[in-house]
Amino acid sequence: MAALDGGRNEVFLGEYEVGSEGTQLISERLLARDEWLESAADAVIVTPDNNLAEAARAKGLRVVEMARPRSDLIAKLGWRKIVRGETVSAEALEANYTGRSETELFVKGG
């Protein structure tokens, strides 16, 4: 489970299956920090964020802390996808990282 700080006391999660054929996305979601810590009980947490790593360790979770990926690595990964034809048209893109609105945060006590 990859974890990044989502701001507003939330965590952006990506769950992946990693194998010899490559990496397959299982799910992506945005959770409140407490919900994330509860949902991650059986997962290995991979994060470049020291605060998230420490919070997970404090709950007894398994953590792999890594260096934050640099832009040149992201560009190389993107170029490989372009070369392989693994692209998506602008019309087919879906916004999947949208946090809760201010109203939702205050109404739900977030």
Q: Please tell me how large the radius of gyration is.
A: 16 Å
How many strands, what sense, and barrel or not for the largest sheet? 3 strands, antiparallel
Proportion of strand residues: 25-35%
Percent of residues in helices: 25-40%
Describe the strand arrangement of the main beta sheet, using strand numbers.
1-2-3
Pairing-aware structural class of the strands and helices? alpha+beta
**Distance from first to last alpha carbon:** 23 Å
Q: What is the N-to-C succession of helices and strands?
A: EEEHEHEHH
Judging from the principal axes of the Cα atoms, what is the shape? globular
Strand segment count? 5
**Unreliable sequence segments:** none
Characterise this structure.
With 110 residues, the chain is of the alpha+beta class. 32% of the residues lie in helices and 32% in strands. The strands form 2 sheets. The chain has a 3-stranded antiparallel β-sheet. A hairpin with a 2-residue loop joins strand 2 (10-19) and strand 3 (22-32).
Key features of this structure:
110 residues; three-stranded antiparallel β-sheet; globular
What's the short story on this structure?
The protein has 110 residues and is an alpha+beta fold.
